[in-house]
Every structure is written in structure tokens, then in C-alpha cells.
Design goal:
Layout (H helix, E strand, L loop, with lengths): L6 E7 L3 H18 L3 E7 L6 H11 L3 E6 L5 H11 L4 E4 L11 H8 L5 E7 L6 H17 L12 E4 H9 L7 H8 L3 E7 L12 H15 L2 H30 L6 H34 L6 E5 L8
Parallel strand pairs: 1-2, 1-4, 2-3, 5-7
Antiparallel strand pairs: 3-8, 4-6, 5-6
The structure holds uridine-5'-diphosphate and magnesium ion.
């Protein structure tokens, strides 16, 4: 307990070898100014480049750097969770490893915290450095997510935030394996503040969120925080059935009045439409069942294959 740091900076890392030293230097400079003891916890999310070698090197020259390496790529949110679980500080700051979350903002987050908050979130102010596609999809996605879910989620929220020990322990105690952190944090409550930040361009490399990872992440957010898609599927099915019933009555009447050959188009259209709605609804239901399946297996969320730096003591 004696030498636990006051601040932990948690950084999930996936193929960021060209960014880590720059980030480390920027963090060191900022933390020097903050004047409190700190540690940096890197979680290497199964990188295929030498990110973990860089982390080890940083640890060799500065013991405040601790590093964990996943046995494979488990995903950004899982890496973030692992880092939060291993953090030891009283104040925990999570940020990306690509310099898009400016380290020089840290004093501002701490100042906000000292006004009496438990959690200080950040919100990206879009600059030209954020691609138009990301801006557009992110904007509409959060609008939709907020319409669907009861938990308010700030648009352009980032996983760049400061939490105190109480909030991190609460977050870590949530049992789900699918973690959409920004939603969970919103759901938790506590006293929360939001600070805007200007997103910088990535220092090196390209986004590790491929289009499909982004889609997956988006779907995770919706399915974890709302059961409305199930209801929408039900209501759509219901409306379509009523329409189909009315149409059936019409078809029978047509049969008895003798004009039954026509109607190929309407049959085709309604069959396709009903087929489409059915498949969509099945997909929605499947998504929830997949989640239940994932959660009931109770598999560990990740494995470490390597680590450097002092262990988190378990008696804390
Ligand atoms: N990341 C990760 N695992 C992944 C994808 C990304 O740990 O599977 C990390 C990545 O190294 C970075 C952060 O998550 O520190 C955010 O990723 P990225 O910058 O690629 O996303 P973007 O900023 O483009 O949304
Ligand atoms: Mg980034």
C-alpha cells in the first residue's frame, strides 16, 4: 500500500509502436507539472507490431510505467477494462495511445475533478482532423442511441476521462463481458462533469477501428442499453400482420368476384416485404440471444501473456 501512486493513467494499445514514446514524453512532461505521484498502465491488446517491446523499454527506464500484454486482440473496450482493473491510483485517467487525446488536458481534468466531481468525461470538439465519415456516423449514431436508450450518452463522448477510485471500483464491479464503457459510466450515476477537448490528429499510423469494428461497437452500444429494437421488431411484425390480414380478406373477396389472375406484383412485393421484416426481426432477436449466450458462458474477458512492472496488490 505504501507506494501506491496518486494518479494512474490507463492506455489501451493496439499496434501503436510509433506513438508510445511520444505519448510517454508528453505524459511525463504534463505529470511533472501536476506534481503528484503517478503510474502509466499500458495494456497491449495483442499487437502484432513491437508495441510491447516499446512498453518494456519504457519500463526499464522508468518504473512508473507498467505494462500488460493480452494473449490476443480482445478489443479496445476489454483492454480499457483490464487497465482500469490493474490501476492502483486514487484518480484514474483513461486515454488513447495515439495522441488524439491531448495529455496536456490532464491538469484541466484534475481541476474540474477538484470542483467536486467523481467522474470527469470529455467530449470531442470535431476539428478537420476527425474525418467527415466519422463525424457524420458518430453524430447520427448517438442521436439514435439516445432515442432508443434510457441512459443518456453524450454524443462525441470519448474514452478519455478521469474517475476517482470509488467510480472505477463501481465500474469494475459490473459483471458484463460486453463493455460499452461510455454507456456504463452514464448508467452508473455519481457526480459527473463534461469537459470539451479538441481532438488532435493521430500522431502515427491509422485508426484501429475498421469499418466493421465500428459497426460492432455501435451495435454493442445499442444492444447493451436498449431493448427497444426488440419492441420495434414486435410492432413492425404486428403492423405487417394486420396489413397482411386485410390483404388476405381482399384476396378472398377478389377470388369470389372472379378476377384472380392479376396480382402477381402485389404477391411478390408483400412476400419480399414480409420476408425482409421477418429476417430483420430474427436478426434483432438473434443479437440479444448471442449476448445472453456470451454472458452465461462466464468466460474470462481476457488473458495476459506477459507483463512488466509491479503487480497490483490484492489486499487493496
Ligand atoms: N485499440 C485497442 N484495441 C483495438 C482497437 C484499438 O486497444 O482492437 C486502441 C488503440 O490503440 C487506441 C484506442 O484503442 O489507443 C482507440 O483506437 P483508435 O485510435 O484506432 O480509434 P479512433 O480514434 O480512430 O476511434
Ligand atoms: Mg484514435
Amino acid at each position: 500500500m505504501s507506494n501506491t501512486p496518486q494518479i494512474s493513467v490507463v492506455v489501451p494499445v493496439y499496434n501503436e509502436m510509433a506513438n508510445l514514446e511520444v505519448l510517454y514524453d508528453a505524459l511525463s512532461a504534463t505529470m511533472q507539472g501536476v506534481g503528484r505521484s503517478y503510474e502509466v498502465v499500458f495494456v497491449d491488446d495483442g499487437s502484432s507490431d513491437s508495441s510491447f517491446e516499446v512498453i518494456k523499454r519504457l519500463h526499464d527506464k522508468d518504473k512508473r510505467v507498467r505494462g500488460y500484454s493480452f494473449s490476443r486482440n480482445f478489443g479496445h473496450q476489454t483492454a480499457l477494462f483490464a487497465g482500469l482493473s490493474q490501476s492502483r491510483g486514487d484518480l484514474i485517467i483513461s486515454m488513447d495511445g495515439d495522441m488524439q487525446h491531448p495529455p496536456e488536458m490532464i491538469p484541466e481534468l484534475i481541476a474540474k475533478y477538484e470542483e467536486g466531481y467523481d467522474i470527469v468525461n470529455t467530449k470531442r470538439i470535431d476539428a478537420a482532423s476527425t474525418g467527415w465519415f466519422k463525424r457524420l456516423t458518430s453524430h447520427w449514431y448517438y442521436k439514435m442511441l439516445n432515442a432508443l436508450s434510457d441512459v443518456p450518452i453524450e454524443p462525441a463522448a470519448a474514452d478519455f476521462r478521469l474517475m476517482n477510485r470509488k467510480a472505477v471500483d463501481a465500474l469494475n464491479s459490473l459483471p458484463e463481458a460486453h463493455r460499452f464503457t461510455r454507456g456504463l459510466v452514464g448508467w452508473m450515476g455519481f457526480r459527473q462533469a463534461i469537459v470539451p477537448y479538441q481532438a488532435a490528429a493521430r500522431h502515427a499510423g491509422s485508426s484501429k477501428y475498421t469499418f466493421f469494428k465500428m459497426l460492432r461497437f455501435g451495435l454493442d452500444g445499442i444492444v447493451s442499453f436498449s431493448v427497444k429494437p426488440l419492441r420495434i421488431a414486435f410492432y413492425t411484425g404486428f403492423m405487417v400482420s394486420i396489413g397482411a390480414l386485410l390483404y388476405a380478406v381482399y384476396a378472398v373477396v377478389q377470388h369470389f368476384t372472379g378476377s384472380t389472375v392479376e396480382g402477381w406484383t402485389s404477391i411478390l412485393v408483400s412476400v419480399l416485404f414480409i420476408g425482409g421484416v421477418t429476417l430483420l426481426s430474427l436478426g434483432v432477436i438473434g443479437e440479444y440471444i448471442a449476448r445472453i449466450f456470451n454472458e452465461v458462458r462466464r468466460r474470462p474477458m481476457y488473458f495476459f501473456k506477459d507483463q512488466v512492472g509491479e503487480e497490483k496488490s490484492t489486499e487493496q
